[in-house]
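Attaching the record inline, Q. Sequence:
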Amino acid sequence: MDNKIHDMTTGSPVRLIIRFMIPMFLGNVFQQFYNIADSIVAGQFIGVTALAAIGSTGSLMFFVTGWLNGLSSGFAILVSQWFGAKQYDRMRHYVAMSVYLAAAFAILMTAGLLIANEPILRLMNYSDDIMPDVKLYMGIIYAGLIVTAAYNSLAAFLRALGDSKSPLYFLIISAAINVVLDIAFIVVFGMGVEGCAYATVIAQGISALLCFVYILKRFPILHLKREDFRVSFESFGRLLALGIPMGLQFSITAIGTIIVQGAVNIYGEIYMAGFSAAGKLQNLIATVFTAFGATIATYVGQNRGAGKMDRVKQGVRCTQIMILMWSVVLMVLMYFGGRYMTWLFISPSETEVVNAAVTYFHTVFWCYPFLGSIFLYRNTLQGMGYGLVPMLGGIFELVARSAIVMIVAGHTSFAGVCFSDPAAWIAALIPLVPYYFYKMHKLGNSSAIADSRN
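Structure, as predicted:
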């Protein structure tokens, strides 16, 4: 077996989870760095309006890329389960079927979103002054979704086999290229926000190409044969049964953030820029939660496939403790240091923008333990093959966010809109935690996995 492949069904769960999580965390940081780099370069070299334009697209970017990421992560669950069961022919078959589905979704999304670009932005309350920049930026991002889908799928296959380091290395390379291209297009060639968008698409394409070449050279276990690509609608159905709920879960969450962004846009460019800077920082430091979630999904998927439910329980318990510890660090960091961290995106002289970001941090900091727990229980259930309840958690999150926004937007201060995040995080856990304990009690130490893996 290739030495890059990690079997997570044996050994210390804590050591395995930490070793897998650290590259995942760094990979998530560099993946976010695309939009962060765009925001930094735009904010420093073009101005507040450009920062508001690019930064405010974060929720919309999450909606689009989150759907593709959720699909590929859902498809990879079957890959990890069959890998854990040591049935590699079945594993490769599901890899091939995943390629078909990922390509189809990327093409359909590109066509649909290019047509709906301006209507979506109108619904988000963008002013006529900022609309052209946002429309141009998102149009280029939509045109490049095929490379986003390619990277997400290839990286998900590698992680399903326990390799979280290689996707990280490729992201580091492409993130560095993204920064160089951002500066070149904007500072040297005098381009506007479209320069940031082109840099992002090119860099993502490079990361996808690197993943593909690496798999060809180093992962013979993933080398597909002609028979692997034999179309099976039954297999499509099983993949979609996991991928669609995960994609919807990401998208439902993103719809909630889009609604919040639309409410923030009512307050004007100052609050848009402040909210954007705060959101970028929070997403960056909370990538530890995302990394723990992706790690536990692979860990649970492999151990579920091997029928080792006792290891599933142990891994979840240890991960919960680590998430709570990191939450405390974040609470202190963002409450007391958030103001200074915003200077990365905007000049300290823009005091109103900085104060808007600080308002957000002071409103939400206490709820980070709930945010981290969402990733733990949602990804655990997904790794076990249950996609419906995690999607239901996303619906609870959407309802809570929407309710708060409807009550406060335009009627109270900016802080009232910010409170929609804590409300959503708490609401998302309502179906997740009870269902996890119900399933673990029901399954016990059973090795039967046919219901989620067949």
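Residues 105 and 136 are 22 Å apart (CA to CA). The chain has one domain: 13-453.

More tomorrow.
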